[in-house]
């Protein structure tokens, strides 16, 4: 990121080469419209190129990938808002099978927590993923999932209660 911040195009190309497949998969899991995914990818990497100097990962103990995902998730929420404003709902990607990142998370958290996460209803797991893993606000999660903010809060509460019961 330091090299990208200094305007090193080769470093930026390497960052893109290493992260774009992963980022595209994560975005596609949240939006089925390929055009929107492509626009969000472009906006994200443009923002990274322009703001690489503001990345404080070393001082904040963060990672470039986490920072990249935060930018992309916010750009996706913006795309949902733009479409909602123009009354064109975006098709939300349907989860057919657990994603590799969900499986890895469940394995890394241990058997009990992993089992508890897998036992959650999909709509509860989506809210937890958006708010906890992706770091989105209640409002951003509501826009991303296409549900009211109150529903997001209720699902988050239900998920916490279910996890607490499963782990006690």
TrEMBL record:
Gene Ontology molecular function, alphabetical: DNA binding; sigma factor activity
Gene3D superfamilies the UniProt entry points to: 1.10.1740.10, Winged helix-like DNA-binding domain superfamily/Winged helix DNA-binding domain
Pfam families: Sigma70_r2, Sigma70_r4_2
Residue ranges constituting the RNA polymerase sigma-70 region domain according to the UniProt record: 15-84
Keyword Zinc: no
GO biological process: DNA-templated transcription initiation
Boundaries of every RNA polymerase sigma factor 70 region 4 type domain copy: 113-163
Keyword annotations of the record: Sigma factor, Transcription, Transcription regulation
PANTHER family, per the entry: RNA POLYMERASE ECF-TYPE SIGMA FACTO, RNA POLYMERASE SIGMA-70 FACTOR ECF SUBFAMILY
Family label: Belongs to the sigma-70 factor family. ECF subfamily.
Name of this chain's protein: RNA polymerase sigma24 factor
Organism: Saccharothrix coeruleofusca
């Amino acid at each position: 990121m330091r090299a990208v911040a200094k305007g090193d195009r080769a470093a930026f190309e390497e960052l893109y080469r290493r992260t774009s497949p992963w980022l595209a998969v994560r975005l596609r899991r949240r939006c089925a419209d390929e055009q929107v995914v492509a626009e969000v990818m472009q906006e994200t990497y443009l923002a990274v190129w322009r703001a690489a100097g503001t990345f404080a990962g070393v001082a904040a103990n963060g990672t470039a990938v986490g920072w990249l995902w935060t930018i992309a998730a916010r750009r996706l929420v913006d795309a949902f808002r733009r479409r909602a404003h123009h009354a064109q709902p975006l098709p939300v990607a349907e989860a057919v099978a657990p994603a590799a990142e969900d499986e890895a998370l469940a394995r890394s958290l241990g058997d009990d927590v992993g089992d508890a996460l897998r036992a959650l209803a999909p709509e509860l797991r989506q809210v937890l993923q958006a708010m906890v893993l992706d770091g989105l606000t209640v409002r951003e999660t509501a826009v991303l999932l296409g549900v009211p903010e109150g529903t997001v809060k209720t699902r988050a509460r239900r998920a916490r209660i279910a996890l607490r019961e499963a782990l006690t």
